[in-house]
Design a protein that fits this description.
The structure is a single chain. With 419 residues, the protein is an all-alpha fold. Helix content is 84%, strand content 0%. It has 15 helices and no strands. α2 packs across α10, α5 runs parallel beside α8 and α13 packs antiparallel against α14. It is globular, with a radius of gyration of 22 Å. The N and C termini lie far apart (48 Å).
């Protein structure tokens, strides 16, 4: 009897420790660590000048990943909320839209590759054109990931992110060593890594409708409305997250742009770790809401975790900036050390504001997005006036993100009793 009970207790403990959500969080930490290892490897390998080109391609991938997140969040929301008969047709419809949108974005990127390469001081257009090929695949993968996220299949979701990260690191090493062409090698490694992530999600196994079911006009409008608002917010996030990096690439020389890119990629660690928390939070809140259960307590818990993480990271960036920069990128990047804590603080403020915005968006409270858009536009306008130094750019970010967080918290207090 004792042996059987003991085995049951061990099995229960194992199930708790290795629950899908915990495994996803652990794998997310591994993926983020791998991505930063990738950036650090390139930074040390190439030096600040050449790293500016590599950093631009990585930044473009992150920019389009926000657009892909539009498909992922929309798929997650409607698959979690809709009845069984409407889930599969909705997912397949979104998958078609994703492919067409990817083709459109790729075509525009290729069409405007010449002026873009001149704006960002790139040598040739081949890197941009080869990068564009991954966009239809990336958007399709985002729908598949959203389907897994809605069903809380975090094991498969974890595998997709891990496969993409590992493939990017390995293919970059092979291609850069064999071709010795930095931009083209990195763009092709991005393409191959997206293929690896897509294959792991088994896009062909997306649930197929067993019954002939046509989406009602009302449902289509509802999906398109949420999709449009979410897409608008992803554009806002692009402006907030990457507007500074893109403009620095334009306003500063290659070496300075490479230094700023390395600092920004270190600061992004805060955002992407908090983003993984949001990915777990959203389906959990949606499912609790569907069952009529209270969910604000869960939200407060996540906010507390992220706040503690942000405070710790910002404090470490302030106390040990030179140690962090030297260990990560090497002595060639030490000029960014005095600014590291400022970037960490700005990113922390945005990460916290982002949690309130996604809660509002999940609950169909769209004014939160409009408020964020207003702050993003003002921030971009301020960049064009105040860009004489890294300090000016970062001060603009800190003030803007402090305002954004304050506005989102006030809006949340206003709507709290209605959700």
């Amino acid at each position: 009897m004792y042996s059987i009970a003991n085995k049951r207790n061990i099995g229960s403990l194992t199930a708790t420790l290795f629950s899908p959500a915990r495994v996803f969080m652990l794998s997310s930490m591994v993926v983020n660590g791998g991505n930063y290892l990738y950036n650090i490897m390139l930074g040390r390998w190439l030096g600040p000048g050449e790293f500016a080109v590599a950093g631009l391609l990585i930044t473009l991938l992150l920019v389009f990943s926000f657009l892909g997140m539009t498909f992922q969040i929309t798929t997650t929301k409607f698959k979690a909320e809709l009845p069984e008969t409407e889930r599969s047709p909705s997912v397949h419809w979104l998958s078609k839209i994703a492919i067409y949108s990817g083709i459109l974005c790729a075509s525009l990127l290729i069409l405007f590759s010449v002026p873009l390469s001149k704006f960002f001081h790139m040598n040739g257009i081949l890197s941009l054109c080869s990068f564009a090929l991954c966009l239809p695949l990336y958007f399709s993968m985002s729908v598949s990931r959203g389907s897994l996220q809605a069903s809380e299949h975090f094991y498969m979701l974890s595998g997709s992110y891990l496969a993409e990260m590992v493939a990017r690191i390995l293919t970059t090493i092979v291609l850069v060593l064999s071709l010795n062409i930095t931009g083209v090698s990195i763009s092709f490694s991005i393409l191959l890594s997206v293929c690896a992530g897509l294959l792991f999600t088994h896009l062909g196994r997306l649930p197929k409708p067993t019954l002939v079911y046509t989406l009602s006009p009302a449902l289509r409008r509802g999906i398109l409305t949420f999709f449009s608002v979410t897409a608008g917010y992803e554009v806002v996030q692009i402006m907030i997250n990457y507007g500074d990096m893109l403009l620095v690439k334009h306003y500063f020389d290659q070496t300075m742009a490479g230094l700023y890119t390395s600092m920004a990629l270190v600061g992004r660690m805060i955002y992407f770790i908090t983003w993984m928390v949001v990915m777990i939070m959203v389906p959990g809140i949606l499912n609790k809401r569907k069952r009529g259960e209270a969910f604000l307590g869960t939200f407060y818990q996540y906010v507390a975790y992220i706040s503690a993480f942000c405070v710790g990271t910002t404090a470490a960036s302030y106390l040990f900036p030179e140690v962090a920069v030297t260990l990560l990128f090497g002595e060639a990047y030490l000029p960014i050390a005095p600014y590291l804590w400022m970037y960490a603080l700005a990113t922390s403020l945005f990460a916290l504001a982002n949690m309130f915005i996604y809660l509002s968006l999940t609950l169909d409270k769209y004014p939160a997005v409009m408020l964020a858009a207003g702050v993003a536009v003002v921030q971009m306008a301020l960049y064009t006036e105040f860009h004489d130094s890294f300090g000016q750019i970062l001060l603009v970010q800190i003030i803007s993100m402090a305002v954004l967080l304050s506005i989102q918290m006030l809006y949340f207090i206003r709507i709290r009793k209605t959700i």
